[in-house]
């Protein structure tokens, strides 16, 4: 997921790490470092997730592709008799996710509640690594940025049943042109970044068609002055800039 800062001309160059190594290091502060794009995504998911759930059959199998610290996985626990799987490349993020989901699970009444919750560490850019699921629903939030589009949609196609519903959100290419995924290591003060692709909507839509999905809903989102109270002052420099987009898709075959 993109950081909220761009590199100044005189700043020291960030240390670029592979995605797994970067997110293993980021896990300790990922939920507390004030990332405005993550905050905006959570706001949008308040609207999108109920829409996604309404399109699912009873007792669905659902995968969170790039589940991270379970910011959105934990919302799936409230789906009655669902079979939920969180897939992520970072084992450190998965450990955070398990703890977060356990807290949510213990706070929920037995019904409605999901039936199964499991996490799997794997390279989510590889069709071989993710395994076989036939999921009725897949969510993937602020993840595509790190994966070539052909790989991302090939993985989604593999793990989804025909007619399955896919919810995706991502950093907008207008933001990606001047910023990329990264964070500051709290121990050293060093800037860390990792692989980041500024996928455009037209490129995404090409892959959607190529992998035989149809678009049910899509939206682009710029930061407004009114958002700052909820997403924080770090979002101010992005007011008027499109930073986010989301889509709900159906796999046709």
Brief account:
This protein has about 250 residues and is α/β, with parallel strands linked by helices. About 30% of the residues lie in helices and about 25% in strands.
3D structure, described in words:
The chain is an alpha/beta fold. 32% of the residues lie in helices and 25% in strands. It has 9 helices and 10 strands. The chain has helices at residues 19-26, 36-54, 73-76, 91-107, 127-130, 149-159, 173-176, 201-210, 228-231; strands at residues 15-16, 61-65, 83-88, 116-121, 135-141, 160-171, 182-184, 191-193, 213-222, 242-251. It has a 7-stranded mixed sheet with strand order 4-3-2-5-6-10-9, sandwiched between helices. A 3-stranded mixed sheet has the order 1-8-7, with no helix packed on it. Strand 2, helix 3 (73-76) and strand 3 form a beta-alpha-beta unit. The longest helix is centred in the first third of the chain and has 19 residues, at 36-54. The protein is globular and about 50 Å long. Residues 2-10 have low confidence and may be disordered.
List keywords for this structure.
25% strand, disordered N terminus, 3-stranded mixed sheet, 9 helices, 253 residues, 7-stranded mixed sheet, alpha/beta, 10 strands
């Amino acid at each position: 997921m993109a950081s909220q800062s761009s590199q100044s001309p005189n700043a020291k160059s960030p240390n670029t790490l592979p995605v797994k190594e970067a997110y293993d290091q980021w896990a300790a502060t990922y939920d507390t470092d004030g990332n405005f794009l993550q905050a905006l995504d959570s706001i949008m998911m308040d609207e999108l997730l109920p829409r996604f759930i309404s399109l699912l059959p009873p007792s669905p199998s659902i995968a969170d592709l790039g589940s991270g610290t379970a910011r959105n996985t934990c919302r799936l626990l409230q789906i009655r008799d669902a079979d939920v799987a969180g897939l992520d490349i970072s084992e450190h993020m998965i450990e955070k996710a398990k703890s977060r989901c356990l807290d949510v699970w213990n706070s929920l009444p037995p019904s409605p509640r999901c039936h199964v919750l499991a996490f799997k560490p794997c390279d989510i850019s590889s069709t071989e690594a993710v395994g076989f699921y036939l999921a009725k629903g897949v969510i993937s939030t602020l993840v595509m940025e790190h994966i070539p589009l052909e790989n991302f949609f090939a993985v989604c196609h593999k793990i989804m049943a025909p007619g399955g519903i896919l919810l995706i959100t991502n950093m907008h290419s207008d933001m990606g042109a001047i910023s990329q995924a990264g964070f500051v290591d709290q121990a050293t003060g060093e800037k860390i970044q990792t692989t980041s692709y500024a996928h455009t909507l037209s490129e995404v839509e090409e892959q959607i068609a190529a992998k035989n999905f149809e678009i049910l809903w899509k939206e682009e989102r710029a930061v407004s002055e009114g958002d700052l109270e909820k997403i924080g002052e770090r979002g101010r420099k992005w007011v008027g800039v499109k930073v986010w987009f989301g889509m709900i898709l159906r796999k046709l075959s």
